[in-house]
Design a protein that fits this description.
- Keywords: Antiviral defense, Cytokine, Secreted, Signal.
- This is IFNL3 protein.
- GO terms for molecular function: cytokine activity.
- It is found in: Secreted.
- By secondary structure, this protein is mostly helical.
- The chain has a single domain, classed as Interferon lambda (Growth Hormone, Chain: A, Up-down Bundle).
- About 65% of the residues lie in helices and about 0% in strands.
- It contains seven helices and no strands.
- Helix 3 runs antiparallel to helix 7.
- The longest helix has 22 residues.
- It is globular, with a radius of gyration of 21 Å.
- About 10% of the residues have low confidence.
- Bound molecules: 2-acetamido-2-deoxy-beta-D-glucopyranose (2 copies).
- One 2-acetamido-2-deoxy-beta-D-glucopyranose binds next to helix 4.
Amino acid sequence: MLHLGFTLLLVLGATLRASLGAAFPQDTPKKNCNLSKYQSFLPQETRAVQKMKEQFEEIMLLSDRQCNIRLFHRKWKTAELLVPDRMKLVEAELDFAIDMLELPAEPKFNETRQQPLFFLTQAREDVRDCLPTGHVPPGKLRHWLQKLEMAKETETSGCLEASAILHLFQMLNDLRCAALRERCT
Ligand SMILES: *[C@@H]1O[C@H](CO)[C@@H](O)[C@H](O)[C@H]1NC(C)=O
Ligand SMILES: *[C@@H]1O[C@H](CO)[C@@H](O)[C@H](O)[C@H]1NC(C)=O
C-alpha cells in the first residue's frame, strides 16, 4: 500500500512538471544550443560556397531552367523574427539547401559541393539543438514555411535546386542572424 502511494506520488509529480513546462514555454536557449561559431564565417567556408555557386551558374547557363518561384524575396527581414522563430526558419532553409545539394550531379560539381554540404549539415545539427518547443511561429513565418513545402511539391527539382543554390548566401546570413541572437537587428 505504501509502495503504491509512493508510485502515485511520483506519477503526479511528473504530470505536474510536464504541465507546468507546457504552461511556461521557455525562450531561453537549450543546454546544448551553441551557435557561437556561426556568428562569423571562416573565409574558406565562404570561398567554398562562392566557388560552388559560380560553378552552378555555369551549369545553369548551359541548361534551360524554367523557374519563377520567388521563395527568397520575402517582405520581412529575418531580424524582425524572435530568436526562436529564426531557428525554425534557418532549420527549414538548411534542410532545403541540403536536400538540393544531394541531388544527382555531374562529378565535377559533386566534388565542389562536398565542403559546403558538410558545413551546412553540421550547421543544421547545431541549429536543431536550438529549436524551440511549445512555441507557435508568427503568421508570416508559418506562411513562408507553407510556401516552401508547396514549392517542393509543385516545382521541378531543377528549379528548386537553382533557387536554393543561388540563395545560399542569404541562408548563411539568416544563420548568422540566428547565431547573433539579440545582436542581429
Ligand atoms: C560554444 O562553442 C564555442 C566553440 O564553438 C566555445 O568556444 C564556447 O565556449 C561554447 N559556449 C558555451 C556556452 O558552451
Ligand atoms: C559525390 O561524391 C561523394 C564523395 O566524394 C561520393 O561518395 C558520392 O557517391 C558522389 N555522388 C555522386 C552522385 O556522384
